[in-house]
What does this fold into?
Amino acid sequence: MEQFWNGTKTVAFGRTPAVFAGDRFSHDSFQSALPELQITKRRLKQIEAIQLIREQREFGRQQLGYNARPFVLCGIPLRRPPSDQLVYTRHNGRFFLEISAHPRFGLPYGQDRLIPIWVATLTVLQKNRAVRFGSAAQILEFFRLPKDGPHYRRMVEGFQRVFAATVFFGTEQQPDRTAVIDLARFQFFDRMQLWFNSTEEHQTPPGENFENEIVLSEAFYREINEHRIPVEREVVAALAHAPGVLDFYMWLVWKSWTVNGRPAVVPLVAEHGLSEQLGSAEYCEARFFRRKVRIWLQQVNALWPECPASISATGSTIIVQSSRQSPAIRAVAKAVNT
It folds into this structure.
């Protein structure tokens, strides 16, 4: 668990606290103190990521990527679904997301949610339905992932799952007891020409002028253009290995920005509740999901101390107030150069 206060920062891991005066600390001196403080290099990396994210937000130096609206409103599975599960559905109020998988590749899950962010970011920056990039190393670098064989293979498999999936996204309403359905069906990509090697050392693609190319489907391209949602590149990178927290964070950023007036009160476990929209189907018992949301909110508060969300006294709802006075993404932010 991390705890932070303005002025002097206290970071608590287990029973051993580390205190830093002011807003900065010496990296070298802290490295040398790791054994005494019983803080691992992984924890140090997390602390550095939190400090970088806060400083970028405070000084208007955020780097932005973009995500597609369906995957902010509704999350894909957090973990690999059973091999015989080929349809996945989530709801967010009147919106719903349904993904149909190819039986050969299965449903997208886990870090596959990074692929729409990568492609949406390229689409916005290149202003083209056909996006191009030089090497797979650029994707891994964008998300601060190790450029090694396992991560390359994981990325290739993720592209296969995403490419083969069919997405249904839309709304269902019943005014005056008459069903009204507004539904869009799309595949992510029309065509994909990718070259991936298993190791960073062999990143010379076939052909001197070879470029990886992804041609988005017209429907997916239109969805991104009309409803692009900015995301913080460093936050996505910091939470790349924690898809549940990442989905929760992006939803809170979007939801708090759309609140106008009275706070939004969202049930945690109920019809149209939070458990129905995030990719958290494995938390089948209400008490497990409520406990998980509390942990997620603590992690979000470490990255965004001004986050205007809280769990109700009964523990049954999350209360989201407007973030217009202290948004996670500042208006002065710029898109990251990929």
The radius of gyration is 21 Å. Residues 1-25, 174-182, 198-203, 332-338 have pLDDT under 50 and may be disordered.
